[in-house]
Amino acid sequence: MAKERSLSPEARSILSARLSRRSVLAGAGGLGAVGLLSACGGGGDSGSSDNSVRWGNWPLYLDFDEESKTYPTLVKFADQTGIDAQYFEDYNDNDEFFGKVQAQLKLGEDIGYDVVTPTDWMAARWMRLGYTQKFDLANIPNHGNILDSLKSPSYDPNRESSLTWQGIMAGFGWNTEKNPKGIRTLDDLFAPQNKGKIVVLTEMRDTIGVILLAQGVDITKVTEDQFMNAVDFMAQKISDGWIRGVKGNEYAEDLTSGDATAVIGWSGDMFILASENEGKFDFAIPESGGTISGDNLMIPSTASAAGKANGEKMINYYYDPVVAAEVAAYVNYVCPVKGAQAEMEKIAPELATSEYIFPTEKTSSRLNVFRSLTPDEETTWAEAFQKAQGN
Amino acid sequence: MRTALPKVRVPYLLLFPGFAFLFTFFILPIVNLAQTSTQTPISGGDTGQYEQTFAFGNYIDAFLENREQFARSFVYATLATIFALAIAYPLAYAIAFKSGKFKNILLVLVVAPFFTSFLLRTIAWKQILGEEGFLVPTLRNLHLLGPQTTITSTSVAVVAGMTYNFLPFMTLPLYASLERIDPRTIEASGDLYANGITTFRRVTVPLSMPGVVAGTLLTFIPAAGDYVNAAILGSPNTKMIGNVIESRYFKIVDYPTAAALSFTLMAAILILVTLYIRKAGTEELV
């Protein structure tokens, strides 16, 4: 992330052949697009029992051992506690997952999960609708290990019913051959060499967030006029042929295929690209600031008392710095647990200094959280953002 | 009379499974969709909460706001159908008449793409048409393509993807009707001093019309509603109505507009197909 510094520490960690999310992703081209048609994914349908916990999470978001086909940290948790931890990688999309379980949540019927992992804004919606349960903090002594910057989001100021699973930074990613000086501002992004080869994220809060910050707007207080103004800016850049696409994780393929030379992208993906093609890609938080969001561990209102208690024990386990470091070494997103950096020193020292996983104070101070929206805003703003991209 | 009654019942009994299936998986969803399409948001409700107010204006709003994507869907689908026909007709003709012992192998090759997922095949096209594929650098070397021009994220890529993806649907019905042509009719045409072109125009084409009609319908209908090709190979300027419906449903959580658009699309396809069959189908076939 630092200026003109090649990412050799990460590259070295690849050479050490520790399997991680990046190698899995490399073999699974078009992962994002697969989500398009996977709306009917199964899983999470097994019954609950007093001695089990069922966790629905995003794909490739937990350390996985290719040889034994198991999740090492989860196996350890099961061994330590005797709780049967069932893991389902079927949280592919916030809206899609919500659509799938909404009716059951409304009726108070078991949705098949005791722990779910929605992104901030979706977590806020679950809470507004009363679809979550408050934690029993006695079961989560590690609760206080959450990073200060993530401690009090507007939707859950005291973190009473949610804890961050991983943090996601959005900023600029670029091809270093085409952008030898790097990209720090919107002007750098919309430089002539990138015309028609810019891709921005489908996640409204990240793309428009980065644009708003560049326009000097505080995204923790953004108004509708300011938002629409930024959407118009994006629409103009699309119709003028600067932006070629608005995409999810697939922008990573566009960068590798050369179809895109600069993006507004996510830290975790850019980490993978930078590690695999040493020196060819880089990522930075814009000078004017980037966005940070999180996926949150929460307990649905439909979980049984036993399922809830087991879920809390599991959440507590993952907030142990030792375990958090093991997960972060695989997942490469921002680790939300205090003390994990010190633990990372022990297992993968080259990753302990990675700004992708442990942003420094200086970087963190430039990260902003998009304010939560009212239901009305959620609809009108999403509509404007979708229209700007031709939908 | 006593023996006649059960006979009357038998056809109904045989029809029952089909009707039950259609009722559950076609009629019920359609009714549900129709109900959703005239709903409006509950005031003060949360995202995705709607109530029935019989707001038929939804249809007008939905159509007027998305005229462009509707038009684009039908233009792309028409182009893909024409290209698919242009490619599939000679292909099916060759397989039916000229392939000899290779007939079965060629047929398997036509069907083979179905063995992989639709999605993966489309993603493969992204690589083929991409900057580091074979095609783009070659065209650049031949100066047929400017250094800044790309093929992916254009309407060319979307129509190409659709043509490719629906090609087997065009080829198989064409093959089936060409293969059924009695070779003696072609011989007879020659005996009556028709040359090759005249024979093709006056005998082969008319006899293959059922295949042409079936193939064009099987291509055009799914192509008009397709959103995968536009999503993967296109750009914001090539969005089709399927993309709008997807975004309305999943991203904006605006179920009524998504439902109204779906109905409008169904109606538009139905009208176009009816006109087409009236014109091409019955006159030529009967």
Automatic annotation (TrEMBL), chain A:
Please give a single GO biological process term from the UniProt record. Answer: polyamine transport
Listed GO CC annotations:
periplasmic space
State the Pfam families in the record: SBP_bac_8
User: Among its keywords, does the record have Cell inner membrane?
Assistant: no
State its location(s).
Periplasm
Fetch the SUPFAM superfamilies from UniProt.
Answer: Periplasmic binding protein-like II
> Gene3D superfamilies, from UniProt?
Periplasmic binding protein-like II
Which protein is depicted? Unannotated protein
The organism of origin for this protein: freshwater metagenome
Q: Lineage of the native species?
A: unclassified sequences, metagenomes, ecological metagenomes
From TrEMBL, chain B:
- What are the annotated GO cellular component locations? plasma membrane
Protein name listed in UniProt = Unannotated protein
Q: Any idea where the ABC transmembrane type-1 domain is?
A: 70-276
Q: Which family does it belong to?
A: Belongs to the binding-protein-dependent transport system permease family. CysTW subfamily.
According to Swiss-Prot or TrEMBL, what is its membrane topology? Multi-pass membrane protein
Q: Which organism is it from?
A: freshwater metagenome
Subcellular localization: Cell membrane
Which keywords appear in this protein's UniProt record, sorted alphabetically?
Cell membrane, Membrane, Transmembrane, Transmembrane helix, Transport
Q: Name one GO biological process term.
A: transmembrane transport
